[in-house]
Amino acid sequence: MYRFQEILYKPFSTFIIVLSFVVGICSFQFCILLFNTNYNYYSKSKNLIKNTNTMSIKTNNKTVDEIIDFLDNCNMNLGYILDDSYEYQNNSQMVKILGLNKYYDLYKIISLDEGRMFSNDDINNNRNVAIIGNELNHITYMKKNKKYLQIHNKEFEVIGVFDKKNITSFCFSVFIPVKAIPDNLKTKPVNECKVYFNKKQNLHSLYKDLQLKDKNFKLTQYYDKELSFKNVLKNSYYQNKNEFKYIIIALLISFINLITFSFIWTTDIKKDLLIKIIFGATKQHIIKLITFQILIISFIGWAIASLISYFSIGFLDNYFNTKLLFNTINFVFSIGFTTLMILLSLSIVLINVFNSNLSEGIR
User: Fold this and answer.
1) Torsion angles phi and psi, residue 195, rounded to 5
2) CA diameter of the chain
3) Is residue 128 over pLDDT 90?
4) Cα–Cα distance between 28 and 247 in angstroms, integer?
5) Radius of gyration of the chain from Cα atoms?
6) Half-sphere exposure (CA, 13 Å, Cβ side) for 227?
7) Cα distance between residue 21 and residue 26, in whole Å
8) Element spanning 243, H or E
9) Which 3 state secondary structure label does DSSP give 205?
10) Which residues, listed in sequence order, are joined to residue 162 by a DSSP beta bridge?
11) Angle 312-313-314 from CA coordinates, rounded to 5°
């Protein structure tokens, strides 16, 4: 029990140190979780940026059907993917829908884990077939030995599944032929959508042609830019800029509390430690004792933080409307950050103890 008496000597200081560990570790775990998810999203989106040219179409409450007609009137053989702006809720699951029109190079953007890509017949005749992200597997059902998915009461045969290994922005997406999009989605007014065109398409020429067709559609041209590593990091931060600001503030508060109360805690127990030294305790014994106690405190903080993170992951998924990515990187960084906090607290305590004057301390 003597190994724990300093921990119990000033329970308030001990509690604040534990709380500092909990807040710091939770904040850091959440930061890495969110950043890793965003980084993976933008990193995997390189395939989309690399293989397509993008154009934004702004409308004055035009419907999706009208946007499709607008593009068809320009060129009936135009190959494109309509952005995932069309969403619906199914059993509390958000699904993002991307419509393909004569776009035959989807294999350059996603890699299938099972099934097949769209055939020319599927796309040209707008069959009710779909390729889905792995995270949507649980809302599919079997019928006559085939997998199906319902989108607004319209049944689609699932011909392919992708993204089993890497959770990206597409893991909650459904790719379907554009004219197979359910009617109640096609008649829904939208203010803006993005369209991804095949690299083979001359975007500059297409931009001029589309701009002349109908002044009710305002086009913004996006030139081809591959995401550099620097831009991926930058976009990962700006995706949830406000949340990262709050996380940084929480981390600063936890570090300030850790430093302050580690010093206060050491000051409170200093006399007891100095008496141990006078009665024969060696410097090595004191170091071991303090190290053991700091490890106990940090382990309690880490355990509480891990439980909070585990039970809050579902809430965070719903809050950010995505599947937060947890992998080995998160775990390694979390352990590294906890170790940093342990070393910081331990250093403050040891410096405060061994910089004391024994005789002055006893008086």
Assistant:
1) -125, 130
2) 94
3) yes
4) 7
5) 29
6) 20
7) 8
8) helix 241-278
9) helix
10) 112, 133
11) 95
Paired sense of beta strands 93-101 and 189-198, if any:
unpaired
Q: Pairing between strand 93-101 and 129-133?
A: unpaired
The verdict on pTM exceeding 0.90 is: no
Cα(253)–Cα(241) distance, integer angstroms = 19
Q: Do the strands 93-101 and 146-151 form a parallel or antiparallel pair, or are they unpaired?
A: unpaired
Question: Residues 305, 25: contact at Cβ < 8 Å?
Answer: yes
Q: Quick one: DSSP state of residue 322?
A: S
Token pair in block for residue 162: 């992708």
Torsion of CA 148, 154, 159, 162, to 10 degrees: -90
Select the more confidently predicted residue: 356 or 131: 131
Q: What is the pLDDT of residues 50-67, one digit of tens each?
A: 778 777 787 777 888 888
Give the tokens for residue 125. 């005749």
The CA-CA-CA angle for residues 175, 67, 131, to 5°, reads 5
Q: From CA 35, how far away is CA 233, in angstroms rounded? A: 9
Q: What are the tokens at 61? A: 């409450």
- Determine the residue type at 227: L
Full 3-state SS string of 113-159: EEECCCCHHHHHCCCCEEEEEHHHHHHCEEECCEEEEEECCEEEEEE
Q: Please, are residues 139 and 90 in contact by the beta-carbon 8 Å criterion?
A: yes
CB 193 within 8 A of CB 80: no
193 pairs with which residues across the strands?
57
Q: What is the torsion angle, in degrees rounded to the nearest 10, for the CA atoms of residue 174, residue 180, residue 182 and residue 188? A: 90
Element containing residue 96 per DSSP (H, E) = strand 93-101
Here the tokens at position 173 are 């997406």
The beta strands (E) that lie in 136-231 are given as 141-143, 146-151, 154-162, 173-177, 189-198, 218-222
Look up residue 35 and give its two tokens.
């950043």
